[in-house]
Design goal:
Length: 143
């Protein structure tokens, strides 16, 4: 009997830790949106291309702040409805990777633009990025 009481006390002590719980949207949770990345490429009349990775809010989610034994300093920072940091600064590798992809897309766009003789026609295209892979078919194309 003493073991059962001791085991229950240990389990309730360990499960009572403070923290954040991420899950579906609910009435007692802070609502945020999962970001969805897209590649935006634009070309000017002077054949100058630029590529930018943009994030657009997509799926609605929720994060709950759980109090527990002891003290906790929990924080969530939002920008445009999307989480930018949780309790600490975000990993700096993600922006570096996105910048590399944007630079590569810009270089490819400029290489194509230099092959065309004469003036370029200005335009813009938006590409879907799924699991780190850019869809070759543009979602939106503005001539």
């Amino acid at each position: 009997m003493k073991r059962l009481v001791a085991s229950s006390a240990v389990v309730s002590f360990l499960t009572g830790c403070a923290g954040l719980t991420f899950g579906p949207e609910s009435t007692n949770a802070l609502t945020y949106y999962d970001p969805k990345p897209y590649l935006f490429i634009s070309t000017t009349a002077d054949c100058v291309s630029t590529a930018t990775i943009i994030s657009i809010p997509e799926a609605k989610r929720g994060v709950t702040f759980n109090s527990g034994y002891g003290t906790a300093d929990l924080s969530v920072t939002l920008s445009g409805g999307m989480i930018t940091s949780v309790g600490q600064k975000t990993d700096t590798k993600i922006p570096e990777t996105l910048s590399s992809v944007a630079s590569l897309a810009t270089a490819l766009g400029v290489a194509r633009a230099t092959k065309v003789e004469g003036a370029c026609s200005p335009g813009a295209k938006l590409y879907n990025i799924d699991k780190g892979v850019i869809d070759p078919k543009a979602i939106v194309s503005i001539p």
